[in-house]
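Hey, can you fold this one?
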Amino acid sequence: MPPVITCIDDLKQLYKKRTPKMFYDYCESGSYTEQTFKENTTDFAKIRLRQRVARDLTGRSTEVSMLGAPVTMPVALSPVGSTGMQWPDGEIKAARAAAAFGVPFTLSTMSICSIEDVAAHSPTPFWFQLYVMKDEDFVDAIIERARAAKCSALVLTLDLQIMGQRHKDLKNGLTSPPRLTIPNIINMATKPAWSLGMARTPRRTFRNIVGHVKGVTDLADLTKWANEQFDPMLDWGKVRRIRDQWGGKLILKGILDADDARMAAEVGADAMIVSNHGGRQLDGALSSIRALPSIVKAVGEQTEVYMDSGIRSGQDVLKALALGAKSTFIGRSFIYGLGAMGQAGVTKALEVIQKELDVSMALCGVQKASDISREHVLVPKDFEGDWA
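Sure. Predicted structure:
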């Protein structure tokens, strides 16, 4: 009898059983003490929903727009590195699920399936996330590859100029594909569906890079190149250059400060994502939901403000919209589904979140997701912090 899935945590429990430990740990971890990683979710619990009654609850809709296009609900799939290690051909499976559901999918630079792989298998255009590397030829080329694949937006990540340390990845010796050590072989042998799928697919390394960077031909070359390439000199001037080179819709990801939000609006971003990289970069930074209100206040209507990091339910989506986000992004929530059940699991994660959002909207007396506002939540007076 198939398991009954009622919430995202049900998918997480299946995911833990069915995915090799190093990739589960890669997903379910943050940097250093993991304070920010944990607070991304626990801070949502401090916000209460405001129940309203005797309202007309017919004709409800979770539909909103993102970058001028309609989406089924205010949720997009975040770029997640090594998604194709969570489930064979994971990026393709997630892109198909997102397209069928009617929400955006964002492909990571550090994906297992390449831009071209996903473009060949996705029924609709997707968004591409760019890490700025020191190798300007690579950056220029991958932007052109995204354009050739008809990607409808570029998501430029700003908060990974230097990689935060994640203890579990170091202890597990994380690589894609995993090195065939005795502990890894033993662990993978307990995940038969994952192992069989990986044996059948040719997509087992970072295909946006291998074959596209001179001198990178094997795992050792790839690891050395990636560890040295994130650009510590990325500044607003380079952001402008990439904006001009791309010429299409631009989303800036990794905004956590009101001053940076103003700069993002000034350089002409079509949208920004309030994000701390899922707690995987600067440990001790504010949770995204706590940082959100000040950023919305800083940029007003100049640009669309989205939020990621910590979304695990439709109620979280409602709370983010109430605090000013135009829409939200999910990373771990869809990865749990992918690792648990492949493409069907991503669909299930989206269904769970949409149903929770719809029911919670109704009990708050809201008919349309686009009408959610601060009046639908109760927020502690000190929620944003009374800092000296």
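Residues 159 and 254 are 5 Å apart (CA to CA). Let me know if you want another pass with a different chain boundary.
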